[in-house]
Amino acid sequence: YQAKMDFALKLGYAGDQIQAVLNKLGADALINDILAELVRLGNKSESEGQSSASSTTGTLVPRGPCPKEIASPELSLEDEVVDNSDNLRPIVIDGSNVAMSHGNKEGFSCRGIQLAVDWFLEKGHKDITVFVPAWRKEQSRPDAPITDQEILRKLEKEKILVFTPSRRVQGRRVVCYDDRFIVKLAFDSDGIIVSNDNYRDLQNEKPEWKKFIEERLLMYSFVNDKFMPPDDPLGRHGPSLENFLRKRPVIPEHKKQPCPYGKKCTYGHKCKYYHPERANQPQRSVADELRISAKL
């Protein structure tokens, strides 16, 4: 009896449990039978303890972190922040550029503006502004055809579209430069410019506008009626589209392979590897590099 008692105690079972089992099975019971009974009693007491805990607290608290957090801690951060509209940058759309692009440069297609607006609304953006010259409200002419013109009125009522001012002086139309409206609003609101125009004339006006346009211009393509911005708006080594549209990045960028030549690399912006020393420099063309070196 004492030998079996000591054996079970060494295995970590409580003394009262061992005594209850030995009293039930008898001192002549086999060790295997005693262990089987002890295991059964242990499982039973554990299940009773869990049921009592659930009845008092109502919920079971898992031990340790959940598998989702172990697998990818970024996912929980993404779920919390991606849907937060406060983290999304304001969007300023060049309406004329988008409409002419969707009209294949042959006409002003207002449906293209609606497609672009819908794409950003589906992404959760609420601060969207479209600029269109006021003379586009006039009746369509053979030299300047406009399709789906009622969309402009609809977006204006929704306070998404803004007409840049224009007027007639002695039969001549005086038009304000809508591109300046677009860049100025995007710069002041720290937003994104949606256009395929590079605004080179405005880049030369102010150095801060030049840097802003280089870093915040989102180009796009239309595939039939599908609005498609690029997944890498600033190039291969730049941020992803999801992070580009946000004030704080929520999806970690893929690790970039550093260039084996480092600062001695002679490929310039055409190098397919990552250069940490060039991270904050704009991707200049070869012609721009030659001009700068000539000035120096």
How would you characterize the overall build of this protein?
The protein has 296 residues and is an alpha/beta fold. It folds into 3 domains: 1-42; 85-245, Rossmann fold (3-Layer(aba) Sandwich); 255-294, no CATH class. Helices cover 44% and strands 12% of the residues. It contains 13 helices and 11 strands. The chain has helices at residues 2-10, 15-25, 31-57, 67-71, 73-81, 95-102, 110-122, 150-157, 178-189, 200-203, 207-216, 241-244, 286-295; strands spanning 91-94, 108-109, 128-133, 146-147, 161-164, 166-169, 172-175, 192-194, 217-218, 221-223, 226-228. The longest helix has 27 residues, at 31-57. The radius of gyration is 34 Å and the shape is elongated. It starts with a helix and ends with a helix. The model is unreliable at 53-57 and 63-83 (pLDDT under 50). Residues 45-75 are annotated as: Disordered. Residues 48-59 have a biased composition (Low complexity).
**Do you know the CATH topology of the largest domain?**
Rossmann fold
With strands numbered from the N-terminus, the spatial order across the biggest sheet is: 5-3-1-8-9
Structural class estimated from helices and strands? alpha/beta
Residues in helix, %: 40-55%
**Shape from CA axes?**
elongated
| N/C terminus separation | 98 Å
The total number of structural domains is: 3
Biased composition (Low complexity): 48-59
Zinc finger (C3H1-type): 253-278
InterPro entries: Rege-1_UBA-like (IPR040546), RNase_Zc3h12_NYN (IPR021869), ZC3H12/N4BP1_RNase_Reg (IPR051101), Znf_CCCH (IPR000571)
Family: Belongs to the ZC3H12 family.
